[in-house]
Amino acid sequence: MSLSGQPIRVLIADDHPLMRDGLRFMLQPESGIEVVAEAADGAECLTKFREHRPDVALIDLQMPKVDGLRVIGTLCSEYADARFVVLTSFAGDARVSRALNLGASSYLLKTARRDDIIRALYDVARGRRYLGSDVAQDVATHRGTELLSAREVSVLRLIAAGKKNRVIGEELNVSEQTVKTRIKNILAKLQADDRTHAVSIAVSRGFIDQ
Amino acid sequence: MSLSGQPIRVLIADDHPLMRDGLRFMLQPESGIEVVAEAADGAECLTKFREHRPDVALIDLQMPKVDGLRVIGTLCSEYADARFVVLTSFAGDARVSRALNLGASSYLLKTARRDDIIRALYDVARGRRYLGSDVAQDVATHRGTELLSAREVSVLRLIAAGKKNRVIGEELNVSEQTVKTRIKNILAKLQADDRTHAVSIAVSRGFIDQ
DNA sequence: CGGGAATTCACTCTTTAGAGTGGCGCCGCA
DNA sequence: TGCGGCGCCACTCTAAAGAGTGAATTCCCG
Known about the structure:
The structure is a homodimer.
Chain A: E1 8-13, H1 17-27, E2 33-39, H2 42-52, E3 56-59, H3 68-78, E4 84-88, H4 93-102, E5 106-109, H5 114-125, E6 130-131, H6 133-141, H7 150-160, H8 165-172, H9 176-190, H10 195-205
Parallel strand pairs in A: 1-2, 1-3, 3-4, 4-5, 5-6
Helix pairs in contact in A: 2-3, 4-6, 7-9, 7-10, 8-9, 9-10
Chain B binds a DNA duplex through residues 149-152, 164-166, 174-175, 177-178, 180-185, 187, 194-195.
């Protein structure tokens, strides 16, 4: 946590060199913010974070080697005062919820303007939360909606891979009937018409990737 | 086409302000390149292109209002000497093929480094083509693979929306049998196990979005 | 003009998915 | 300790999907 008068020390983690350049360039004129390190993937982010202990990490979710969500989870359990601003291309209430539950304080889309990002960094450094307006609306839209359990997500991933219920059962060591029950639950929760529709919805809401 | 000695006039089109900043910042020290305009969506890209007639447009595919692919198609048919470098987050051989067929000269991923982008701009301004190594490999992997027809993509989109074959038939004004035949063809072309798998593959290869 | 690809459609048959219903055990939390 | 959520499983029944085979049309291109 930065004392007033001292700049906020920021770590930038994004696998796009262009995006890192854009961020550094954008934050440069801001005297209250100092970029102390950059990381191009999740593993490097872990290393650089432990090395520099920034006040806030500005982090993308889609990163090679180690997923951004995992990075957030790991570092938040290591350091109670770790602060994260997620800056990513994808919305999806489930992804946002997961990030916030893992310890992120802010979630912005890459369509965000300079003001949003600056404000998020200041707010989060003060221990507050800041959601982009579009993200907040997305979350609000699905508020009250049930999230999927870990088991349901596992089943969904296998469905997306084109596996039949019998095969899914074998891979998860349960009966085909159990798989059917799980799927029925998934369809109800996502309000999907069939398994294919469920996968589409799950992807767009961020339960599963790709 | 820029004469030697005169800088290449470039239009940047990307809906991420950060990315535009990064690009401008990256291209600034390059004396052979001059950024003459920026656009934050497809419609603006059309306007700015017609207004400034850049030598090369550096364009993202995912843009609001008008899709990047449509922008490329439109401008290439308006101006025979229009040149495009696609710079986007998503790979997928089908997306690349579509972009190149519509008239793009280069396809890079946003993970590209400065050298790649600079080189692409110079090459394309000279009328040559330049594919990122990762993109080229992706295309090569699926070389010889049959692409999907327009009708097949339509069917696939409706499948992804959770529509049943009968409903798909009604929406496309064909019989349910025809839909089945189409789907059988799609499964064969994509080497998919079932309709759900087909949608997954189609998304990852860029035949359909989201 | 011939060949090929795309699109359309029909008929049969087997497998799979999904709806409906009911029951059992585990675990966390009020 | 009881409730609720989660996970497990069985049985039935209907609708849908997918495999297999065959065939007609249009339209573009060499």
